[in-house]
Write a structure and sequence with these properties.
Length: 561
């Protein structure tokens, strides 16, 4: 899905010009604008049938999914699940390959798209059946008007149906955006600096180098820069869930706290870079790419950007004009699963599950330590038994000595595995930081609903006035189109606010899915993979230990014969 760029020449820039040349090549010059690059690309297409097939697959997706108004994110999740289902049937793992076009045959992709369309049609028919059971005027009036008011106005109204799209600002491609699924961020050279602030007051500041792979960008940033970047992302993308950061720590830093904070910051930036939309933000690109001789210059630029956005926008009261998309349009058809999704209930359940998980991790560690102590006590008893037999019974001495060694090792391994499991489950503690962000997203969705209800009420009141002015005797002679033409501004505003409300209702559901399967999936998978490797190593060690005891016992038995 990412376009492959062709460099103009192979000359290596000097150290001082490297970042500037990359910036100009990727950001200031659009793709294929130079004729020589275009000719090279065309030549590659002729000699490479795979590239032609990739374009054919992309065009098929554009015509069957994007042009028909389906949500791209939902379709990509479906592709990944479809691919994983095939992988399970064939005893393979495709969990990470479903969103890459190169891993799909054209026929296989068409089959997946057809199944996706059939599923969407079934959901639509089910939704229509549920709607027909309710009052046909509910889309227009909701529950804001009484039944007698409905009877007076309904003869002049069409059933209200908003358009399928909401036109928004189209985001521009960047080098980050084109490589968002390949990027990995690593923090290095973390150190605590002491800086002087107002009235010569000194404070500690955590700084580190941010290494971006595979671009090999390496820039130095402060912890305060990260928090400022996050605020900018919140203002610039009010409809997206921005990964959280823990509360700042400005005075006391220890080696353990520095390591922990770097881990959280690294996790934050990696989650940000997994979003194609967030990666279009030029400030983010410059934040990761450009080395500044004077860091204060860039900090002042970020500060000015924040001040500008604050003047234009209110954080918890987004407007439709502030929305953006990679495709210049946002789907506003209310999805059945999004309509039935209850975010407050999800937040409550999400928090309860995480809290219980963390409590269980502590319980496992505590009980593993208790069990370890029991094994060590058993080891002491076995040692005393072996010593009590003396040298007269050598075979029994060796048996109890080997058993005491095995039980002692068993106790230490159990304690170690309890600690491994606790550390792995601590990883989800970071997810509790998402709860305030989810609540803010809910507030934004409620604000969109409030704007719709206000527009709906205004529209209904003016409709009543129009009907009253026309007179009851003329009702049958007045067309619906005439009544609509008398309120063009109100009609347009109501349609836009309905689209805005439907979009945010869909977006809440999509962002919760993105949080679980895109923002946190990779990190969670790697975390528990490491846990399983460590636990498996412990199990292997226990197996070797007990196998050696069996061999020792067999040897003792043979000698006594």
């Amino acid at each position: 899905m990412d376009r492959k760029s062709i460099s103009k020449d192979n000359q290596e820039p000097t150290a001082g010009q490297e970042e500037e040349e990359e910036w100009e090549e990727w950001e200031e010059t659009p793709d294929y604008i130079r004729s020589e690059d275009y000719n090279k690309q065309e030549e590659i297409k002729k000699n490479n049938p795979d590239e032609n097939e990739r374009e054919e697959k992309q065009k098929f997706i554009d015509s069957e999914i994007l042009a028909k108004g389906y949500e791209p994110q939902e379709f990509f999740f479906y592709l990944r699940n479809f691919k994983s289902k095939i992988g399970i049937m064939q005893n393979h793992s495709f969990l990470d390959d479903g969103q890459d076009l190169d891993n799909w045959q054209l026929g296989e992709l068409k089959l997946a798209i057809q199944e996706f369309l059939d599923f969407q049609l079934a959901q639509e028919l089910q939704n229509q059946e549920e709607e027909n059971k309710e009052n046909p005027s509910r889309l227009l009036f909701g529950q804001g008007l009484k039944q007698n008011q409905m009877e007076q106005i309904m003869p002049f109204l069409n059933r209200y149906q908003p358009g399928p799209y909401l036109e928004v600002t189209q985001l521009k491609q960047t080098i980050l955006n084109r490589n968002s699924r390949k990027i990995f961020i690593k923090l290095t050279h973390a150190k605590v600096k002491q800086q002087t602030e107002f009235l010569f007051i000194k404070s500690n500041q955590l700084s580190f180098n941010i290494l971006t792979i595979p671009m090999k960008w390496d820039v130095e940033r402060n912890e305060s820069d990260i928090y400022q970047l996050r605020r900018l992302l919140q203002y610039q993308f009010p409809h997206l869930l921005i990964p959280p950061l823990p509360q700042r720590q400005e005075y006391k830093f220890t080696q353990k706290s520095v390591k922990k904070r770097c881990k959280y910051i690294e996790r934050f930036i990696n989650s940000v870079c997994r979003s194609e939309q967030l990666c279009t933000y030029q400030i983010l690109v410059e934040f990761l790419m450009i080395k500044h001789n004077n860091p204060k210059t860039f900090q002042e630029k970020i500060k000015k950007e924040e001040e500008t956005l604050l003047k234009q926008r209110q954080p918890l009261k987004p407007e439709a004009s502030e929305l953006s998309s990679l495709y210049n349009k946002l789907a506003t058809k209310l999805q059945p699963m999004a309509a039935s999704f209850n975010l407050p209930q999800f937040i409550e359940s999400f928090e309860t599950i995480l809290q219980n998980l963390l409590k269980l991790s502590v319980d496992i560690k505590t009980k593993s330590d208790v069990l370890c102590q029991s094994f060590l006590k058993l080891q002491e008893v076995l040692v005393k038994i072996s010593q009590n037999h003396g040298d007269s019974v050598v075979c029994q001495l060796e048996i109890f000595a080997n058993l005491s060694k095995a039980f002692g090792t068993e106790g230490f391994i159990l304690s170690q595995q309890g600690e491994i499991i606790q550390d792995a489950l601590k990883y989800v503690k970071y997810n509790l930081e998402y709860i305030p962000e989810l609540k803010e997203l809910q507030q934004k969705a409620e604000y969109a609903k409030y704007k719709f209800e206000r527009s709906e009420k205004n529209f209904a009141n003016k409709r009543q006035k129009v009907v009253a002015q026309l007179g009851k005797d003329n009702k049958n002679q007045v067309s619906e189109q005439l009544v609509d033409s008398l309120l063009p501004v109100e009609m347009k505003d109501l349609e836009r606010q309905t689209q805005f409300m439907n979009f945010f209702k869909n977006q809440v559901f999509q962002e919760v899915k993105r949080m679980q399967f895109e923002m946190e999936y990779e990190g969670m998978k790697n975390n528990f993979r490491d846990m399983i490797k460590k636990v498996t190593a412990g199990l292997n060690q226990r197996n070797i230990q007990w196998s050696s005891i069996i061999n020792a016992l067999e040897k003792v038995k043979f000698e006594n014969l």
